[in-house]
Specification:
This protein is α/β, with parallel strands linked by helices and about 525 residues long. It contains 21 helices and 18 strands. The protein has a 7-stranded mixed sheet, with helices on both faces. It has a 7-stranded mixed sheet with strand order 8-9-12-13-14-15-16. Strands 10-11 form a two-stranded antiparallel sheet.
Length: about 525
């Protein structure tokens, strides 16, 4: 049976006292449901640090949420030697992390401040240059890199020998060589003992955690940074993860497991092995995740295993329903496959959530109308409307860097606010279309019949919970658009706001240029070609 590592209270007194801080995020998804999930990224870093012998604790500002002043006050009370920040919200979470980190530096001048995650991985130069309170940035995967950095700081070793970090050296931002990709994910455990499970819930008041089966994605969608950040797709041992889920369910009463994976089913053999391992443990749990419609269709003869394992909903990133835009973003999908995936999930009693992204430059009223008609034709159980967001670590940034920004507040770069101006439509009309599409999909007669009548009690609970949350979010977004979300355009472009593209191709090119100036680097179809 899976079990956690040594208890934090038994740690030797001469090791470092480390505080992990999860900042409160203003996003609608964090505030409206009044339910919080534990910060998996910080817990994943905390587990190895505990096993290394450090005294580790978590300060979760999302619970409450805590005020920034209260977070700093509690941090001072715990008197850490090092404070680690990170947030899955990435860019939208950065302004808050920067503010809290600055306050922590003022209150705890001797504590080391370390910052990790997707945003600092690609903005390490800007952060180190403009935010002197940040001592180190962990680039890429954090489990092994954070462990090595803490050991070097504790022992007084040279930190420039630690791969995968960035810091100021000779008054300039400096990065060490990239850390090796973690080959075996099961070598690093999640520090579940850092949280009180009773304080975290999801899916309508059920005790919940975030779990991860795999990292990365083998596909090449150009708006996504998964392939660049995680480098390649890898997965955990199916039996070990099933044991961990069983332990969390039986020892801590966890009912809902929300998968953080972008594409857990990419490896068919390992994915089916995991489903069978969960079924063999006879658990009454709810599993929620994301996947590609193509994988659902691929597994049409095994979808009964999905249901038996406990899956109640899959989010499928359809992004759009028109062929030209699908080609633009290199989605590698087809409307017929999306439609069939939704039908198959419904046939097996699993909810489907379809995403649809607004804000592509050439969209018109006609495109929105056709998108609405196709979504209704797809007939998903739930719809998630998003806005295209040009993060500079994605290949899509190259297509968007000259577009005008109408939402300069980085805290709003959360996929739920329109960031970019459009050639043929003002922001208010885009917003009206998005709200119309949401309500039309969710209150059409067929959808309301499913809301009222579901034979499966768990699916009925999930459906009604989603409608309650959706109603609150829908009205909240309207009020925010009218009264709170400032949209200011001074003519500046994405590139003016965020700088030059900094995706994995550019990072790889910079490393090669430093190593061999004679090599010429050209990006070719999502890869980097070196020419001598």
């Amino acid at each position: 049976m899976w079990a956690p590592g040594p208890d934090v209270l038994t740690m030797p007194e001469d090791r470092m006292r480390i505080l992990l801080i999860n900042i409160p995020h203003p996003a609608i998804g964090s505030r409206i449901p009044k339910e919080q999930l534990p910060p998996l990224g910080l817990l994943a870093v905390g587990g190895p640090l505990i096993d290394e012998g450090h005294e580790v604790s978590l300060l979760d500002g999302e619970l409450g949420p805590m005020s920034l002043a209260a977070i700093v006050e509690e941090a001072v009370r715990r008197a850490p030697d090092a404070v680690l920040f990170g947030h899955s919200g990435s860019s939208s979470g950065h302004p808050i992390i920067a503010d809290v980190a600055r306050r922590v530096r003022q209150a705890l001048p001797d504590a080391r401040i370390i910052y990790g995650g997707v945003h600092p991985t690609y903005f390490w130069r800007e952060i180190l240059s403009s935010e002197p309170w940040v001592d180190f940035i962990v680039k890429g995967e954090g489990e092994e890199t954070a462990r090595r950095l803490m050991t070097a700081l504790e022992d007084g070793d040279e930190v420039h020998e630690v791969p995968g970090i960035a810091f100021m050296r000779d008054r300039k931002p400096y990065a060490t060589p990239a850390a090796p990709v973690i080959q075996t994910l099961d070598d690093y455990r999640v520090g579940w003992e850092l949280i009180e499970h009773r304080r975290y819930s999801y899916w309508g008041g059920k005790r919940a955690v975030v779990i991860q089966f795999s990292r990365g994605c083998p596909h090449l969608c150009n708006y996504c940074g998964q392939r660049g950040f995680w480098t390649r797709w890898r997965h955990r041992d199916p039996e070990k993860l099933a044991d961990e889920i069983a332990w969390l369910h039986r020892e801590h009463g966890v009912e809902v497991f929300n998968f953080a994976d972008e594409n857990p089913s990419a490896g068919r053999k390992s994915w089916l092995a995991f489903l069978k391992a969960i079924i063999a443990r006879n658990l009454d749990v709810t599993l929620v995740g994301s996947t590609r419609a193509g994988d659902i269709v691929r597994d049409r003869n095994e979808l009964h295993l999905y249901k038996q394992a406990g899956f109640e909903r899959f989010l499928m990133g359809m992004e759009t329903t028109d062929e030209p835009t699908l080609k633009l973003i290199r989605k590698g999908a087809a409307p017929s496959v999306d439609r069939e995936a939704i039908r198959l999930l419904r046939q097996h009693g699993i909810l489907s959530m379809a995403t649809w992204v607004a804000g592509f430059d050439e969209q018109t009223d006609k495109d929105f109308w056709q998108g609405l008609r196709q979504l209704i034709d797809y007939d998903p159980d739930q719809v998630q409307m998003l806005y295209v967001t040009p993060h500079r670590w994605t290949p899509y940034y190259r297509l968007a860097e000259n577009r005008e920004v109408i939402q300069p507040d980085l805290r709003r770069w959360d996929y739920k606010h329109q960031i970019l101006s459009m050639k043929r439509m003002p922001a208010w009309r885009v917003f009206l279309w998005v709200k119309l599409m949401e309500v039309s999909c969710q209150v059409r007669p067929r959808a309301l019949r499913r809301l009222i009548w579901r034979r499966d009690a768990k699916i009925r609970h999930a459906t009604r919970w989603y409608y309650r949350m959706g109603r609150r979010v829908w009205f909240h977004e309207i009020l925010s658009f009218v009264f709170r979300d400032g949209r200011v355009s001074d003519g500046r472009t994405v590139g003016d706001h965020m700088g030059a593209v900094q995706d994995h191709e550019e990072e790889a090119s910079a490393v090669v240029r430093r190593a061999s100036p004679r090599l010429r680097i050209e990006p070719v179809a999502g890869m980097t070609r070196l020419i001598g």
